[in-house]
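Run folding on both entries below.
>entry_1
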Amino acid sequence: MKMTRNQQKSIPMDQVIIMAMEHLYHTIRSLLWEHAKKEQLSPIQIQMLVYLSGRTTRASTVSEIARQFNLTPATTSDALRVLTRKGLVKKSIDKADKRIVHLSLTPEGNHLTGILSQWTNPILEELQHFSRENREMVLIFFLKFLENLRKKNILKELHICFSCAYFRPDKTADSGYCILRNLSLKNTDIQLNCSNYVSSPDV
């Protein structure tokens, strides 16, 4: 017997959440592709540029970027080689260990990143239609959800306050305390990809 529309089973809420995140992911990838084609770069190369633009206090290494984007060192090196050839990324040898190469943006890379960062504008505009309270709830959910995935090693690399060497639990604050900035952190103060992030050996 064929089920009517009203008799069909609804999809469980948690599964709908996963489906919604998948739709959002594909939308973000589509917007990124549009900008990538204009600049003759791949989406991952654009993401690397944006990532490097946030590392204002220290340069990144190939291995760090590979972990951040869950890529092999070889694939990461190939992508960075193109960015270096285009004059967007520069390399510098570590003074203490000459085997380590640090990567940072050139002035041209910084300029282009400012343009490329606009690819998120359509999504940012839609977010403004929701109240700050709604946006804070979404932010807190995603940050805690990502942190749980990191703890279970499902998410390999996550530069979040909770796993930073400068983070301390603090019962007097919503989330904790940053000893670098000397700041009590509310849930909405928790950062992703902070330029001061240093991985804690205890997490």
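>entry_2
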Amino acid sequence: MFGGYDRYRAMQLLARHRWWLRHVPVQQVISPLADSPRSLRNRLLRLAHAGGPVETAGQYLRMIEIFKSDQIHRLVSNTEPIFESLQGWSAEHDPVHAAMRWDLTHYLPYDLLRKVDRASMAVALEVRCPMLDTSVCDLAGHLPAHVLMPGGHSKGLLREATARYLPASITQQSKRGFALPIGRWFRSSLQSTLQNYLLDGRLSKLGFHKPELEALVHEHTLAQADHTHRLFALLTLALWLDWLMESNT
């Protein structure tokens, strides 16, 4: 609601500089940089990919997608046409506000809050208040992006508003996530799990191309690329398919 994700700043950059992103050989310029989900190299590549000849909703889809459309076609046979845009995208003039609104109506209730509710209720914590107070949500939804993110700084307005109540060590610290080191585990203790479920399991029997699955696992385990999010998505799908098949027998 207050512009905390880097992808909102990226949408601002695209709105201002999209024209040159189409013509600069970004891949060649940044290829020597380190590769990880949050590395500068990865972010620049995602920004350049989003800056292609697509509408604003398509730009944001490219920001948040796990697999590119060509990767999906290589992985799976006979796929349906791949979405090039986002359903439920708000036709707002401000692309940052449109992105925030899409997250508020889709990503927040169907992903983040569902996980947070389960984790917090398990230990009797109430973590939603006060950020999801209806008055706070309504206020944030009516403020333009340049007010929420002055100078392009994430959560700029929120940081300023809380500065009188909280120390700078809190208000000025960078955003922290809750991600587990799944990527490292895929290279160590969970490597056999990838082998069992992705390469030897149900996915390769349901039309997923085993050579492409092997390439993803191989590149990741040898640290040639970081496929953490892709492998986690595929592993989750494989585990769900196993559960579904077993529950129907």
